[in-house]
Each structure stands twice: as C-alpha cells, then as structure tokens.
Amino acid sequence: MRPLFVAVRIAGAVLVVVSVVVQFQTSLEYWASQGVQDLTTKIVNFYSFFTIQSNLVGAATFVIGAVVLVRGGHGGADPQWFGVLRACATTYLVTTGVVYNLLLRGIELPQGTTVPWTNEVLHVIAPLLILVDWLFAPGRRKLGFGTVGIIVIYPLVWVLYTMARGPFVSDELTGATSWYPYPFLNPDTSANGYLSVAFYVVLIAVFIGAAGTGVVAISRIRRRA
Fold it and tell me: What is the per-residue pLDDT across 66-120, written as a single tens digit (0 to 9) for each?
C-alpha cells in the first residue's frame, strides 16, 4: 500500500502544480493580449482564489506525505502535525470541489481565459484524489475533534482578507471598482448586497465545519491492519 500511495501523492502533486502553472501562464497571456498595465494586481488576484490556494496546500501535503510514507517504512502513524495538515488539506479541497460543482460550474471566473482540463483537475480530480488518500492511505493518525478549530482558521482568514480587500481593488478589464474572486461574495452584484454575501459565507462556513468534523471522525475509525 505504501508504494502505491507514494506514487499517488507524487502524481497528485505534479498534476496540481502543472495545472496551476498552465492556467497562470494562460491568464498572463490573456491579460497581455488585452493590454493590462497593472499585472501585479492581476497576479495577486489570481492567487487570491480559494481554489488556487487550497490546491497548492494540497500539492504541498501530497509532497510531504510522499516523504512521510517513504521514511515511515512499513508501519506507524503519521506525525501529529502532518495528520492535522492532511485533515486541513482534505477539508479545503473537498470544499473547493463541492462549492464549485454546486455553485460555480459554468460560470466564467475572473482569472482570464479558463483552460478546461486544468479546471477539472483543480475542481474535481484533486479533491477526489485527496479524499481517496485520506480514506485509504496508510498512516492516518487518530485526531481529536479540537482539530476542527484549527481547520476553520484558514477559511475564516481568507474570507476576512477577501472582503476587506475587495472594495479597494478595481478591475482594469471590466472597469468595476471592486474585485471579488467569486460572484456570491460580491455585494455589488448580489441581489441583497451584503445580506446575500453573509448568507453564502455562513452556508459555506457551516459546510467547512461539517466537512472538517467528518474528516476528523473518519480518522477515529479503527482500520484493520
């Protein structure tokens, strides 16, 4: 099992990194073709997507996990810190997959021209890979439910960052005086402004908390040797 999941983790990391790089390069070319002058803002915007950030966390987790499996020999649980990291990465990527496929599929997002295959990797394949890894890879450590408190820190910080930054970032291509990575976070275009945004933020927060609780609960299930 260990050699298999070493290969799965390496393949997952490579696939995610290549997808992010290809999409980023495509976006850069699109911005250049449109005569964008402020590339710095566009680049920061690109890496401000929860999708990009959660996938990069997932890729880093895959790489570290491959090393942990190789060093772990034929037995033993993951180090505590890595168990928590795996739980966080799994929750974030599963959330990315679910939110995208329920709320955002078919909607053009403001990162430039979307590359279809990278879109599927980042929103479908990577979330499935990390979920399979969490369910079946050896070494999964039993975690306490207090880990859920750690899991929710990053999404909370991301939402605060996004909402605080949004009103001060203009979109050079559309002329909009604000910028938000996802339509449901944009109070300027939502039906009820910040009330609609608050509804979706609470809904997604509840989902992340539930997903994190589920991920931790899975870690507590005893597995056969």
Answer: 999 998 755 678 999 999 999 999 999 999 999 889 887 877 665 568 898 999 9
Per-residue b or e along 202-223, where b marks 16 or more CB atoms closer than 10 Å to that residue's CB = eebeebbbebbeebbebbeeee
Amino acid in position 217: A
Rounded Cα gap, residues 219 and 222, in angstroms: 8
Asked whether residue 107 is domain-assigned, the answer is yes
Domain holding 188, by residue range, is 2-219
- Asked if residues 148 and 88 have their Cβ atoms less than 8 Å apart, the reply is no
In a domain, 194, yes or no: yes
Is 224 inside a domain boundary?
Answer: no
Cα Rg of the chain (Å, integer): 19
User: Is 178 domain-assigned?
Assistant: yes
Q: How many folded domains does the chain comprise?
A: 1
Q: What's the whole-model pTM score?
A: 0.92
Quickly list H helices, 72-191. 80-99, 116-120, 126-136, 147-151, 153-165
pLDDT value, residue 225: 46
- 195: number of Cβ within 10 Å: 10
Taking alpha carbons only, the member of 104, 141, 147, 136 closest to residue 122 is 104
Question: Distance between CA 49 and CA 81 in Å, rounded?
Answer: 25
